[in-house]
Each structure stands twice: as structure tokens, then as C-alpha cells.
Write a structure and sequence with these properties.
Elements (H helix, E strand, L loop, with lengths): L28 H18 L1 H13 L6 H23 L2 H29 L7 H14 L10 H18 L7 H19 L1 H7 L51 H10 L10 H4 L27 H9 L3 H11 L13 H4 L11 H13 L4 H8 L19 E5 L3 H12 L3 E5 L9 H4 L30
Parallel strand pairs: 1-2
């Protein structure tokens, strides 16, 4: 259980879970350096070999290491950063619940991968009604009935247990009675699933498989509703999003859909095949490949560690996944599914639906923001991140000031980078920039007021004051 934090005070508005660390330290370069040392000392005490690998990586800045070795190291170190940060903010319960939710979903994705895709999807059924009836009879004998027969989260673990038993019996002779019985049971359930395929494709996430990509010149489906005006074109009505006022019409993926995309990823970083990050290259010449429209497939312009992020997300470690993203893209609230899909264009899947990486990136951020003190966790990772070997914590002011003109994505990203490098930064933009309340940015040497719940500062788009940030 998480230990309850002490009551806040005016001198320390957020008592933290690591002795001797004050909330104000999280906004001071000296405090961030000391916090980094605390993390490093704990890593050395817990896993000396891993700490030695990390120290060698920091000292060399990756020189002499292959991309695969660097990826493996970052994935190995990320959980220690995650555990340390979660303990710092005392929110273990919330992230443990997230991890359990992911583990529950993995049962469904195993069912999808091992049963639906490999066995039931292509099975031919002569008599669909008979197959449905026999499958239902067998599922009832296994303890499912009524609404459970239409619930993939109840069906999946039952069939997964049959798959486990089949795997245990595979070394027996093919005429072993129990092995024959298990395979007969699975065959009947494959036929049941195949007979229900048309309806389950609409309702079960496990039956929603990747589709072939359309012709490059017909990526967007267009319809011509008027014979009298053939130049009029419209999109499919099922893809329309009604505008009511000025609220966002953004339909983000659900947590289950996000994890389905994570499961779909091949995690190519351990083979240096993560083209979503590094681009698609001709194996003979090394040249960047173009797509059918002649657009070069360079991958993520920030070289974000996408595959590594997916792997940590699959393990239920949202903070570790966010820390991996923040190495190369600390300003990720401005990217995600709202701005860029270069990574999807360069996904290893070039002939079928790519992994929806921007949706996953957004979900990694919002999973952290939704937890208690999640806003503070994200903010800390923009100033302090041991996975960033070149700059694990912000430097103190070095006496040089810079003006950044234009606060679009490039401008505010540059401003953030310069601040962490020890520069004083002033930003200007063509639009009016409204000042934020002093309590949210700090004033008179005091740190900002800590935000426990993201909802405290979140406002619907149609209720926000235009602040100019982002141009």
C-alpha cells in the first residue's frame, strides 16, 4: 500500500515520498542534480551491473554501442526511473491499477493472436448454424452461459486455458486420447468463432484485424452524390464528425484500442528495424525509400524511441514509456495524434494498416496525466530524465539570454531546450500571449502550486481564453 503523505504546508506545498527532497527542489538545477544522484545511488545499490552499463553509456554518449545495445539499455533502465518517480510522488496505487488493467487486456490479445488470427479467421464452415450450436454447447460445458457467450473478455481466458493445455500435451503421441479431445474441443470452437465472424468483426476487438492499404492515389474515399454536379465530392457519412459549438470533435481511441495497436507493433528496435523512428532505407544503398507518392520515408523527425515506448506501455509502465518519449520529444503534448504521422508512413507495415503510433503517444501522456500528480510527473520529466544521457537534468543559468521569435512547435521546443541548457529565454509571438496565473508558473522565487489532478487546469476548447501559445 502507498504510504499517505503528510499534510502540505506553505513551506513545502507537496511533501514528497523520498526523504530530504522538497517540492521546490524540483524547480532548482541544484535540486535536480541532487535528485539525479539519489536515483543513481539507488540504481547502483540495487543493480551494480546495470548501473555500470548506464555509466559507460553516459560517459561515451553511446560511442561504440550499436543502436540495439542502446535500446536494450534504455529499456532496462527505464523501470528504475519509473519506480523512483512514482515513489517520489506517492502514487503507486494509481499506476499499479493501470498495470493490472494492461495485464487483463493482454489476455484478450493473446486470444486474438493465437486463436482468432492463426486458427479461426480462415476456417471454412459448411453449416454455420450447426457450428454455432456446437460451440455454444461446449462453452456452456466450460462454464459460460447467457451474456458471457457474447463477451470476448469472458470467452478469451477460457479458450486460452485450452491452448495452454494443448501446449502441455503436444509432446504426447498424436493418438493420445486427451490430446485428441483437446484438439477436437478447439476445432469446434474455431468453427463457432468462424461462423460468428460477420457479427464479431463489428463488436469484438479481437476480430478487428489489419486491412490492406488502399491504392496510393485513392487513400481517401470520395463519393459523388450529384449527377448534375459531378465535381461535388463528399466523404463517407460514417466518418463525419458533427460540429456543435467549438468543442473538440476528436474521437480518441479507447484504452483497449490503444493496447490493440501496441500489441500489433513488432517491437523492431532490438533488430534495428524500427523504421518508424529511423526511416525506411534501401538495404543495398542505404538511401531513404520513397512511398508510392514519392514522399521520402524518413521516419520520426525527432528520432523518438517509438518501439521502446510501445514495449514499456505493453508492460503497463506508462511512466517509463513517457520517460523514453521525453528523451527526444519532451514537448509531446504538441505532437501525438494532432500534428504528425511521419512515423506511421514509415511503419514496417507498408502493405497493410500501420500501427497508429500517434494515438499511442498521446495515450502514454494522458495515462500519466490522469493519475494523481500526473501533471507534476510529466513536468519533472521535461527537466529531469536520467534516460537522457546527454542532459539528465537542467543546468543552472549561465548568464546568456536568447530571444525565440515565434512560439509554434519549433519555437517552444527550442525555448525548452535552451532553458535546460542554462540559457535565459524570452519568447515572442505574432499573437497576443496572455499571462498565466502566478500560482501556475511560480512567482518571487516560489515554485508553482502543485497540481494534483489534471482536471484542475483542463478546460474545454470552447471555454478557453485564447492565449496565443503555439501561434
Amino acid at each position: 500500500m502507498t504510504t499517505a503523505a503528510a499534510s502540505p504546508s506553505s513551506t513545502n506545498p507537496l511533501p514528497l515520498g523520498i526523504a530530504g527532497v522538497r517540492y521546490a527542489d524540483l524547480y532548482e538545477p541544484a535540486g535536480l542534480r541532487a535528485l539525479y544522484q539519489r536515483w543513481h545511488d539507488e540504481l547502483a545499490a540495487r543493480d551494480a551491473a546495470l548501473c555500470a552499463r548506464y555509466d559507460a553509456y553516459r560517459a561515451s554518449q553511446g560511442e561504440g554501442l550499436t543502436p540495439e545495445e542502446i535500446s536494450a539499455l534504455l529499456v532496462d533502465v527505464a523501470p528504475s526511473v519509473s519506480e523512483f518517480v512514482i515513489r517520489l510522488f506517492g502514487c503507486k496505487d494509481a499506476f499499479s491499477a493501470q498495470r493490472r488493467a494492461v495485464e487483463a487486456e493482454l489476455v484478450l490479445f493473446r486470444f486474438k493472436d493465437e486463436f482468432v488470427k492463426r486458427r479461426a479467421w480462415k476456417k471454412k464452415v459448411a453449416d454455420a448454424d450447426a457450428a454455432r450450436a456446437e460451440g455454444e454447447r461446449r462453452l456452456r460445458a466450460l462454464g459460460l452461459d447467457g451474456a458471457a457467450l457474447d463477451d470476448e473478455r469472458q470467452v478469451a481466458p477460457v479458450i486460452n486455458r485450452l491452448l495452454d493445455r494443448e501446449a502441455e500435451l503436444k509432446k504426447r503421441p498424436v493418438d493420445d486420447p486427451e490430446l485428441i479431445a483437446i484438439r477436437e474441443e478447439l476445432g469446434a470452437l474455431e468453427a463457432w468463432a468462424a461462423a460468428r465472424k460477420p457479427e464479431l468483426e463489428q463488436r469484438w476487438l479481437s476480430f478487428q484485424l489489419a486491412q490492406p492499404l488502399p491504392d496510393a492515389l485513392h487513400l481517401v474515399e470520395l463519393r459523388r452524390p450529384s449527377e448534375k454536379m459531378p465535381e461535388e465530392v463528399v466523404g463517407p457519412p460514417e466518418h463525419r464528425r458533427a460540429r456543435d459549438g467549438f468543442k473538440l470533435t476528436d474521437r480518441r481511441m479507447s484504452p483497449s484500442e490503444i493496447l490493440a495497436e501496441v500489441d500489433y507493433c513488432l517491437y523492431c528496435h532490438d533488430r534495428a528495424k524500427d523504421s518508424c523512428s529511423t526511416g525506411l532505407h534501401d538495404p543495398k544503398t542505404g538511401a531513404v525509400k520513397p512511398n508510392a507518392l514519392g514522399v521520402e520515408l524518413n521516419g520520426c523527425p525527432l528520432d523518438e524511441r517509438i518501439s521502446e515506448m510501445h514495449l514499456l506501455k505493453r508492460r503497463g509502465d506508462s511512466v517509463g514509456a513517457l520517460a523514453l518519449v521525453c528523451i527526444d520529444n519532451p514537448m509531446l503534448p504538441g505532437t501525438g495524434h494532432r500534428i504528425c504521422n511521419d512515423c506511421m508512413k514509415s511503419c514496417i507495415y507498408q502493405k497493410q494498416d500501420p500501427v497508429n503510433i500517434p494515438q499511442i503517444e498521446t495515450a502514454v501522456l494522458t495515462d500519466v496525466l490522469s493519475a494523481p500528480w500526473g501533471f507534476e510527473i510529466y513536468g519533472l520529466l521535461t527537466r529531469w530524465n536520467p534516460l537522457n544521457a546527454r542532459r539528465p537534468y537542467a543546468l543552472p543559468y549561465a548568464g546568456t539570454d536568447v530571444m525565440v521569435v515565434g512560439l509554434g512547435p519549433a519555437g517552444y521546443t527550442l525555448a525548452h531546450y535552451l532553458v535546460n541548457e542554462g540559457f535565459g529565454v524570452v519568447g515572442i509571438d505574432g499573437l497576443k500571449i496572455e499571462p498565466l496565473p502566478a500560482e501556475l508558473v511560480g512567482d518571487g522565487g516560489q515554485p508553482p502550486r502543485p497540481i494534483r489532478d489534471w482536471s484542475e487546469i483542463y478546460k474545454p476548447l470552447d471555454a478557453r481564453v485564447l492565449e496565443g501559445f503555439g501561434g
